[in-house]
Fold this protein.
Amino acid sequence: MTNTLQDAGMSRRKATKVIAGAVLGAGLARPAIAQAITVRWWYHFDNPQHTPAELIAKFEKENPGIKVQAESIPWGGGNDYATRMFAAVIANNAPDCALVKISNQARLLEMRALHPIDDMVRGWSARGDIADDVWRVNRGADGKQYYLPIQYVVLYLYYRADLLQQAGLQPPKTFDDFLAAAKATTKGDVYGFGMRGGGGGHDHWGSFVLGAGANFDKGGMVSPQALAANRWFVNLHREHKVFPPSAPTDGFRQIVDGFKAGRTAMTIHHIGSANEMVQALGDRVSAVPVPRSPQGTGWTSFGDESNAIFASSRNKEAAFRWIAFLSTAENNVAFNKLTGQLTITTSGARSWDLHPQRFVDATSQSLPIATVLPDRPQTPDFTRTVWPTNMQRALLGQIAPDEMMQTIEKHFNG
Amino acid sequence: MSQHSSRRDTVPLTPYAFLAPALIITGLVVLVPALRTFWMSLQDLILYRPDAARFIGLGNVIRAFGDEVFWISLRQSLLWIVLSVGLQFLLGFATALLLNQSFWWRSAARALIVIPWALPSVIIGLMWTWMYDFNLGVLNDMLMRLGLIARPVAWLADPDLAFYCVVLTLVWQGFPFFAVTILAGLQSIPADQLEAAEIDGATRWQRLRHVTIPGLADIIMTALLLRIIWVANSLDVILLMTGGGPGYATHTLPLYAFQKAYSAMEYGYGAALAVILTALLMVVVMGYVRRSSRGIAT
């Protein structure tokens, strides 16, 4: 709050005028009420009926003089939200702070849109309540901290315990186990694995192809093991037919509803859908980490979400107070009850009761192989367009699996 | 000088004053963005690299002509327009003829027919996506109950079917426009002409062919031109239902331009694709403008 005038870029003369005006007008103004700072914050909740109003009221009570103007931005699978954010930055109308994902950090940094928060974090007492690994994952490519983590999820394998039991199989731990389970449970109208070939499905592919050694470094998508892994994955559909025919265009809703309706025996998603799965299937649904390759390597998606402060903000300190408030102990738990994801705080996790324990366990057991896609400007286009289009073409036999990998290699490394 | 001032005195300024607000607003919300888009199309502009933008002239257009996806999208755009508008017109025409008959619930039918047109595209896209759904869709359920298919069909995931499924959705959405427009035209055809033709022994088909259709020609042409422009530009329903997939099966030019601008953030290339689409549409727009200004000229 103390640096507001400096941040606003006011000249000394202008500042003097403002102060003089304030003094002259003091007789008319109500006493002891300073001009409230308004922090504009962008957020998105999957459930539109949820509102952060209670958290804002609590914050404003604890921080008189700061008002929070929360603006709900349509998520649209991440695309709408990110596009509006980029457009707002270009139009010089960015909020003071916003929920952000790591996949957009490189682009935002390239636009010089973010403000580093290292100094602020250093002086923040609750810093230690967030694990060091989480801070590390969220750090910018230049080594500075721009993101203040607020929640996370990790993708794991949902499976129908009853169907695997009937087939005399254990939950899959390796790719071979997975193929055996998928083949055994593909019967009649039921398919072994509900694969997401539409937007966002790169996480499914990543567990089997990135998990087997493909990577985004130069040549990493066209190495022999990467090509072999992708062929194996495509053959799950083309040869073994363990995906539903609708897999090439299925999105989040289709894979979750297909699993809930008993049309698939396994699928991959995070704890955010655990409660609705349990509501539909009860004890018949359980979860384990995604299977690992024959070499023991694995990959699953770390679904991050943080708050960031924009470089254009005139209220950076007030904005930090707000985002720090949201990432602090019980406030963070309350926030995550609104989003359905997991608390980022160690203290909050101890008393977590929002989801059945087996899904919390699957999440924590997945952490050793959980990571994010590379923080590069090409990444958003990869997830939105390049991967779905080429994956769909490969699944439909329009292109060879190797051609898909060559396209991805070219997209990232030219 | 005196000649000048006398001429100025005779120029009626009032019409221009009345037109000025509309012209200024149109200039600001249409002309300026259009010129800006054109300017953007001449640059290599990536949104998240604004400082690296550079002028490349027709470089983006040349790139488009060598881009396989551009040609796929253009070909499918043409098919999209012909099928969507053609089928909307035929269905709308037939509906208008039916609604022009006398039956006791005609008023209700005329009101109900407008519903698809009145619904937002987002609702229509979602509704039809779920109707086509592989696992839970009502279409598969009905066809299986009727014994027409043995197993569910993945309508939107099959590259041979997806395009036509989306066309069908758009036909459903757009036919009321033709129905209502043609119905209005039908009511303006003098009854005595039809009666005279009937007295002269013309069959129902002959009356339609030689009296009704010629009487509707102007309305039909105008409606077709307008609808072609709207359909050529539309991408909302495709975006919602398939996102252009599977693969490139439902890519159209506006969708491809949208993807390039909003997903790849390649605003220069996206703008160039939009400018190419605009140039192609100008042919239709000129036709429409010529038709609509004909009445003014006479």
